[in-house]
Amino acid sequence: MNIDTLKTVLLWSNEKIYNKQSHELRYWRMCYMKEGRKLRNDFYERLMLSIADESSDAFLKDKVVADFGCGPRGSLVWAKNASLRIGIDVLAQRYILHFPTEYRKHDMIYVTSTEQSIPIPDGFCDVVYSVNSLDHVRDLLPMCNEIRRILKPGGEIIGSFNLNHKPDLAEPQKISENMLRKMLFRDYEIVHWWVSAPGPRKDHYRPLYDRQLIDPKGGEAYLWARAIKPIT
């Protein structure tokens, strides 16, 4: 590949990333206006506790908890027992610029990552959440490795994942159970692994809340999983 071709490829790649991020930012602006110039976060407690199969945030007592792909809503405001709450997002700085008053309400630290690197030390987090964020990542394996890297031995990954969903501009990654087992959860102890088909349009997690689990057989589904990183 000559230098001119390489430049063209890099420019095309950067333009796609820029368009993807602009699309996501536009989505959040629409939410902000629709919700009365604020961003709701009251639903996160039920959702994230259900994904973990916990009844309260007591399991996070004195722990460092992070949310990869957190968005600007304040996804960890409910986790009062945690010693530190970290939101990780490629667009964190841009969210702060566009929604500056929202961040002050969250009692969280926000960290801007890239799709290849999270600026957090090795083994820093006790718990890492990821809620429907990995399908937003173009280069999946490096990002999975980074999530694994920042988790301390004995720590837990807890996540919700869109399975077999058709890619689009904002969500370019089509994720399967096999990909997650190989990339994110490899050699981890699985605590639970729940898969179900989407529920009604405005309540697509209903089957998972009700533990109506199915084999998607390659069709669109949602996965809720929790796993422990080996100590040695």
Task: Describe the 3D structure.
The chain has 232 residues and is of the alpha/beta class. It has one domain: Rossmann fold (3-Layer(aba) Sandwich). The protein is 32% helix and 22% strand. The chain is built from 7 helices and 7 strands. The protein has helices spanning 3-34, 44-52, 92-98, 100-103, 140-150, 177-183, 206-209; strands spanning 64-68, 84-89, 109-112, 125-131, 151-163, 189-196, 221-228. Strands 3-2-1-4-5-7-6 form a 7-stranded mixed β-sheet. The longest helix has 32 residues, at 3-34. The chain is globular. Mean pLDDT is 89; it is low at 4-18.
The SS-based structural class is alpha/beta
Shape: globular
| Superfamily (CATH H level) name | Vaccinia Virus protein VP39
Number of self-contained structural domains: 1
Cα distance spanning the termini: 43 Å
- Mean of pLDDT: 89
SSE arrangement:
Elements: H1 3-34, H2 44-52, E1 64-68, E2 84-89, H3 92-98, H4 100-103, E3 109-112, E4 125-131, H5 140-150, E5 151-163, H6 177-183, E6 189-196, H7 206-209, E7 221-228
Parallel strand pairs: 1-2, 1-4, 2-3, 4-5
Antiparallel strand pairs: 5-7, 6-7
Short descriptors:
7 strands; 232 residues; alpha/beta; Rossmann fold; single chain; seven-stranded mixed sheet; 7 helices; globular
